[in-house]
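Sample log: Tryptophan synthase alpha chain.
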Amino acid sequence: MNRLQDVLKNARAENRAVLIGYLPAGYPSVEGSIDAMRAMVEGGCDIIEVGLPYSDPAMDGPVIQAAADQALAHGVSTPDVIRAAGAVADTGAAALIMSYWNPIEHYGVDRFAAELAAVGGSGVITPDLIPEEAGPWIAATDAHDLGRVFLVAPSSSAERIALTAEACTGFVYAGAVMGVTGAREQVGHAAQELVARTKEATGQAVCVGLGVSTGEQAAEIAGYADGVIVGSAFVRRLLDNRDPRKGVDAVRELAAELADGVRRGSKAR
């Protein structure tokens, strides 16, 4: 968790938002996904979300599902995902795993936390886990010094936001739009209001995701949020390039575009 906290602290000292990029481990292969994640860091991502592919993804849109389905078909496993997180950590970026709760519980809650910490991982985002049901997870992440990231949404009440923020030890993930993940032409209008409501409840960083795909959108969000989260747009670059080398180049270029947008937006705070 210290690396995650350091990344957020340093960005705050520079008065800028962080850029957080997501890719599922195992697409187009485990090594191919690691190469792409490294390229995202080279392009300007501060934090990488390593997705753990799951067969019943309630929040994932069609782009992420397409990549995750292929990763599962190739036999990607939880140890592969943890190894990918370790490879990201080796770059100096903060490495988080994004996972639904069922795979973590099935693997073993403490085992999962211990193995992630051992490779230098900084934390986990659990989109379908709520704080009231997270007792074993809170204990395991506290024991292994991992950050916990829970989600709030535009529909969240003030009480729900406060409860969720209190349970987070990394940052608070603010879903900019209702519904599944996926790049959109416009970021949801509720995003800025949700960030403001969440900041009223916590001094922690609040990062916005779901829908960001361009440098202009990244700049817009960086003007009021502590972090800009991009997932489907990166996955789409890999899906659109059958040549893995071209896919790696494409995600590096997108990361650079988004990082530039984040810097421009941060200056407008």
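Observation: Strands lie at 18-24, 47-51, 94-98, 123-125, 147-149, 151-152, 172-175, 206-209, 227-230.
Observation: Residues 178-184 have pLDDT under 50 and may be disordered.
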